[in-house]
Amino acid sequence: MIKAIKASLAVTRRQVKSSLAVTRRQTNDAANLAPVVVTGSSGYIGSFVVAELLSRGYIVHAPVRGSSTNPNKIAHLQALPNSENLKIFDGGDLTLAGSFDSAMNGAGAVIHTAAEVVLGKSQSIITASVEGTNNVLKSVDKAGINRFVQTSSVAAIQKYNVPPNHIFTENDWNDWSSVEKGDAYGVAKTQAEQIVHAHFADDEDRSSIAVNPGVVIGPVLSKAHTKASAIFLRDCIYGNKVMNFPCTFVDVRDVAIGHVNALEKLPEFKGRRFVLVNDEKCMPQGGVELGPVAARLFPGHKFDVKPQYPESVMKILRPLSRIPLLGGHIMDEYQRVAQSTPIQFSNKAAREELGVDFRSLDVTVKEGIESIVDQGFAKLK
User: Taking every annotated instance into account, which residue ranges of this chain make up the domain NAD-dependent epimerase/dehydratase (predicted)?
Assistant: First the structure.
């Protein structure tokens, strides 16, 4: 497993643009800076952020719930190159105030990737997101940390009350979603990001920045990661039914680079946000369209991906969902609109200002599937 992880990282490391090299020199040697805390550090995005920080010489504090009693949760982190600069803390429960205190003690920056991805129409999704964000910020304040990078989402940007050809940028905010429409997650991500921006806005000595990824796929570092958003690739291998809502993908390694580059741009880019998506257009059928890509990249193997919501079924359900009283039990407004509305994003700011050179979808799918198979998490058919 260690060999596979190191090989994966070695093959896929990107050179950062020369402008970022200047920024890095301005920060002096990363190893001499105060440690960086990565919340959600054992998670999919968080693990790759940890790997990226370690590769640049940072000392990393990683709060992981239950790590003292379940070493399997952190084995992939301890196998990373430069893991001697990684310190694990048992903690990081978003629902528990003070759970991040020990990890943040003595740190100089936080990259906050921890979050629960729960879809639906429950107010509790929003409440949990807001409370979790506030709990992290309380620990940040207590530790006197002055740089904060937040993992937000394109869900805090995209909305469905715009012209069909609208291209979304960092200037857009999701003011469409609501619990009643069925998109509590979109509300939760929007409110959490706004809370963070407001928290640091009036303090000239402290700064925050947000990164807003699309659907994150690519290589994995643990089996648990195949159950996160990388499940799209695992389901391609298995031929499972996948969510066929329109979406735009991005490589997890580019997301990690975007986070660390954003950190190195503070305080210059205080209050900014950056869309992280690859260069491909939105895929109208989402994960279903990864199947043909995988089949082309792995000739001789079968990737029989099936849509969770076939169009033949959707043609019947959409009009039925508009029937008063009954319709909401069939399909909510978010499901009806989102399933049939491709969303286009611009990654220009991330490319030109953060220096992220996004991998192609082919590279992401190929190396993602290879990573899953090589580590024994699935077998090609």
Answer: 36-268
Q: What is the DSSP secondary structure assignment for residue 72, as one 8-state letter?
A: G
Nearest to residue 125, comparing CAs of 176, 41, 65, 186? 186
Exposure string of 124-146, with b = 16+ CB inside 10 Å and e = fewer, is ebbebbbebbebbbebbeebebb
Contact call for residues 209 and 149 (beta carbons, < 8 A):
yes
C-alpha distances out from residue 310 to 44, 244, 315, 337, 338, Å: 29, 8, 9, 15, 14
Residue identified by tokens 């192609």 is: 360
Domains in the chain (CATH in brackets) are 2-220+249-279+344-361 (3.40.50.720)
Residue spans of alpha helices (H) in the chain = 2-12, 18-26, 44-55, 75-78, 101-104, 123-143, 184-201, 231-238, 252-264, 290-297, 311-320, 327-330, 333-338, 348-352, 361-374
Torsion on CA atoms 345, 337, 316, 180, rounded to nearest 10: 150
Dihedrals φ, ψ of 352, to 5°?
-85, -30
Task: Say how far apart CA 353 and CA 349 lie, in whole Å.
Answer: 5
Residue 50 CA: distances (Å) to CA of 19, 61, 243, 272, 298: 22, 9, 29, 22, 30
d(CA 309, CA 74): 36
Are 46 and 222 spatial neighbours (Cβ–Cβ below 8 Å)?
no
Per-residue pLDDT in tens (0 to 9) along the chain, 381 residues:
444 445 455 444 443 333 334 334 334 446 567 999 999 999 999 999 999 999 999 999 999 999 988 999 999 999 999 999 999 999 999 999 999 999 999 999 999 999 876 666 788 889 989 999 999 999 999 999 999 999 999 999 999 999 989 999 999 999 999 999 999 999 999 999 999 999 999 999 999 999 999 999 999 999 999 999 999 999 999 999 888 889 999 999 999 999 999 999 999 999 999 999 999 999 988 889 999 999 999 999 999 898 888 888 878 888 887 888 777 778 788 988 988 899 999 999 999 999 999 999 999 999 999 999 999 999 998
